[in-house]
Amino acid sequence: MSDTSPVVRLRIPGTSLPEEGGLPPESNVWVVGDEESAIVVDAAHDHEAIARGLGDRELMAIVCTHGDADHVGAAAALADLTGTPVLLHPADGRLWEQVHPDREPDAPLLHGEVLVAGGIELRILHTPGHTPGGVCLYAPELGAVFTGDTLLADGPGATARFFSDLPTLAASVRDHLAVLPGETAVHPGRGESATVAEATARLDSWTAGGF
Ligand SMILES: [Fe+2]
Question: Where is this region: Disordered (predicted)?
Answer without folding.
Answer: 1-25
